[in-house]
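README: folding subset

This subset contains proteins for which both the sequence and a predicted structure token string are available. Records are stored as plain text. Below is the entry for Double zinc ribbon (363 residues), shown exactly as it appears on disk.
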Amino acid sequence: MTIEFECRYCQKVLSAPDDKAGSLARCPQCGETISVPVPEGTPSLSQADEGGSDTGTPVPEESSFLAEGTLREEESVLSTGQTICPMCGEEVPAGAMNCDYCGETLQSPGRGAWEPRKIEVGAVLSRAWGVFSSNLGRVIGVHFLAYILAVLCSLAVLILFVALGVGAVALLGEPEPGVLIALGILGYIVVLLINAVFQFYFLLGVLSYILKLVRGEQPSFNELFSGWPYLGRMLLCSLLFIFMYALGYICLIIPGIIIALMFGAYPYLLIDRNLPGIESLTQSRKITQGNLMSLFLISLVLGSIVLVPYLSLVFATVGMDRGAGPPVWFPIVMIFFMAFVYLFLIPFSVLVGGTCYAEMTNQ
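--- output ---
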């Protein structure tokens, strides 16, 4: 039998075995020291002692949750080798990141509460590379799956519009050439807009997956389909972001770079904090304050990595005999180029972006 109660600090619903009633514990979500409540009708401490139970031992005031001092680790129910999952009530090993029974996230490794802070370039790149190298298949896999799904959706939209066009011509007859061209252009624009919506939808899923991976969680590929609640706000914020970036780029390029660095964290804020309207843009400016130079240096590092495949492609084409055509090894260089860009560069760059956000918010 378990006792269910709320943490009085963060209102997380917790549960503990009934033999821990009156004991001290730490909330697995906020880390505050709390006391497991004693259910009504439970025998008093003195009665429990007479019955031979050791659960009624009173807790000294200096080590209780009422004291100003920090609870010693060995006095916590959650540090006795087992801890109680607040979601399902099952016992799991102390220090576990996730519940083995229901998958509930119990804690993030070595990180405190969400709060903006300054980052270090080396720490970001080191953490990003550690996550990337230890989850190589998952990072590449989620991007590859997103590519495939986006392409399939684009093909479905294109086939649908072509079928509608053919059906309209069959029913109404062939229109005038000018009208046909106008309808073709209009249909092309509509297809592009619909495809852009699908792109943003799967982008939200990829970013959510990557962010959870960076925080030490074990997300599933179903995370790709988690972007629907944020899609409308993502489209609105992206339109504003593109407009501000284009305006800044026109103003001698440098303002555009500053705007990109200052507001570029808005997708992660939208996913992580579920902020209303365009608040993710304003919050992005707050968490990047004091980090613009570090973000710029990280961008330079990624930019230098981008040059590797392009320079190899340039060197491969230098001295090529135009009359004889490309050499036999040229397709190998092209395959290397495409593989490097799509299987390494893009996934790693996205992972670095998620790591920057996690570091800037102390996650």
